[in-house]
Amino acid sequence: MKAVVCKKYGPPSVLQLIELPKPVPKDNEVIIKNYASAVTGSDVLIRSANFPLLLGLMFRVVIGFTKPRKPILGLVFAGEIESVGKNVKRFKKGDQVYGFNGSSFGAYAGYLCISEKESKESCFVIKPYNMSYEEAAAVAYGGVLAPYYLEKGKIQKRQKVLIYGASGAFGTTSVQLAKNLGAEVTGVCSTRNVELVKSIGADKVIDYRKEDLSGSEERYDFILDAVPHGKIDKKSLKTQCKKVLSPNGKYASINEGSPKLKAEYLNQLNTLFEQGKFKAVIDRKYPIEQIVEAHKYVDTGRKKGNVVITVEHP
Ligand SMILES: NC(=O)c1ccc[n+]([C@@H]2O[C@H](COP(=O)([O-])OP(=O)(O)OC[C@H]3O[C@@H](n4cnc5c(N)ncnc54)[C@H](OP(=O)(O)O)[C@@H]3O)[C@@H](O)[C@H]2O)c1
Prior knowledge:
Layout: E1 2-6, E2 15-19, E3 29-38, H1 41-48, H2 53-63, E4 76-84, E5 96-100, E6 111-115, E7 123-126, H3 133-151, E8 160-164, H4 169-180, E9 184-189, H5 194-199, E10 204-207, E11 220-225, H6 234-243, E12 245-253, H7 263-274, E13 282-287, H8 291-299, E14 306-310
Helix pairs in contact: 3-4, 3-7
The structure holds NADP nicotinamide-adenine-dinucleotide phosphate.
The site of NADP nicotinamide-adenine-dinucleotide phosphate has 29 residues, from helix 1 and helix 4.
């Protein structure tokens, strides 16, 4: 099978497409014929290992000192179950599924094996009939991670919610989920993404290049900082956000806390998707053969929503 391996940390060129034997599922695992993945913010962080000193040390203890211990990268997948181990109860051959494989990675490949059991790190669900594999790979990352942070807001109908970093994978997911909870949503992004954020339902959009949040008269019940680590001075952003919170308002940041993944989050998203109340935001698509170009593009920090990787099978 085709697989992308990362034999050392570094720039996109460290990624190599090679042929590997197809994996064999254990008794509690399914084997998925994978049709799509994505280049997520986490994939580029793992590939580059570009962390500040202490965080970098902790990362290398967990993921691998000079290279990832699990050499095939890729967190999210979408494909068809080809066969199941003898103890698998919840899934069967032919099920079309998508999900998130946590620190086991392995989704930049033609096939991957994954335990049917949901864990804090990985989960997958049956894909809705009207969602393509590419859309499924696009929604998986924000779909399992963003709800963890949104739950911290305990969002009620008509509350004012602000998503800072509304045009990214977390942001586009959060704007849509908050709208579906009945909130009045304001998104913050740069000029070129204002129309995109409006198109996914934001009631108002603040262009951070033209307007400073701390000068706003508005007060918010919940603010989610969805800007990746390293893109902005996080301390000063937090101070700005707290100035515009209502007296009982809550604040969360995607860089604080350890999200617990739940298949339930993806099932809730599936219901919205089936009803046309949630859409996948796909910026670009690359075949797996162009994984280096795809990572170079995401490294620019300018992706909108999601960048999908497609896998063709002979
Ligand atoms: N806590 C955890 O366990 C955990 C787990 C997974 C991921 N993460 C975090 O999530 C990140 C990936 O998030 P993502 O995929 O949503 O990122 P993304 O798709 O790259 O989105 C980035 C967002 O930040 C905005 N942004 C970039 N630079 C900015 C600036 N200087 N000022 C204001 N806004 C700015 C972008 O807006 P414009 O493009 O319009 O500028 C965009 O809306 C990872 O890098 C990691 O930091 C955390």
